[in-house]
Amino acid sequence: FVKATGRIAQIPMSEAYLGHVINALAKPIDGRGEIVASESRLIESPTLGIISMCSVYEPLQTGLIAIDSMIPIGCAVATDTILNLKGQDAICVYVAIGQRASSVAQVVTTFHEEGAMEYTIVVAEMADSPATLQYLAPYTGAALAEYFMYREWHTLIIYDDLSKQAEAYRQMSLLLRRPLSLSRGYVSAYIPTNVISIADGQIFLSADLFNVGIRPAINVELLRQTQSNPLPVEEQVATIYTGTRGYLDSLEIEQVKKFLDELRKHLKDTKPQFQEIISSSKTFTEQAETLLKEAIQEQLERFSLQEQT
User: Where is the ATPase F1/V1/A1 complex alpha/beta subunit nucleotide-binding domain (predicted)?
Assistant: First the structure.
């Protein structure tokens, strides 16, 4: 049964959505009751013009060295980034498209356990959902993120993943006899070109790199970071400084990860001033560098003794 409302497609808006799992029509699917909202927003809202936008001047730390050090995101990658934003006054919208219900439930459970659902909204359309709803889910997520953005919150939206929306779009297009081309693995394919046309910066991930165990799957040589273990910016600074200043040259490749893990712990336990300086000033000062050098030298001596025994 279809009923005309006389209005352009829109969804209700409210801060009460935080902590909930909803579908593409903004209806809660987590069994926690209805959400009361007094406002609404068009699913496809006009965007701001380039002139009215301010330039990106404040980075949003993801906790992933491969991204934060080379391709900073303006104020997995996916779940790790959301976990890293705890306590940073940011709102996250996680859009799950065409995934198994068990996979989405696992992500939501992780968010609950880590306290991330307090500032996160999950929009989910499962693999068995109609193609129209899978196509609509990213727009619903974007509308929710924009609602908080216009209220001057730092807002992060993550789509996991848009390839499923592209497949849903292809199904809809075939019904309309307008088939689309889906060329996987090429920057000129449907999704990359659409994202590049609207985004200030892009990261192009490789499925081949992911399948051989390089994660995040960014082609920047072999940079490996443990999943669900995002690093705060001060630990990223320490890691990059240690590597670029030659302190790791005397170690075997298989020793590097262990050394860096122990260095970060040693730095946190014995030089808490380092974290305070970086987090408060957002600057790598001479004092911070001195503290870091001392911690590295101490850890090199400890590590050498450990390996000898």
Answer: 75-186
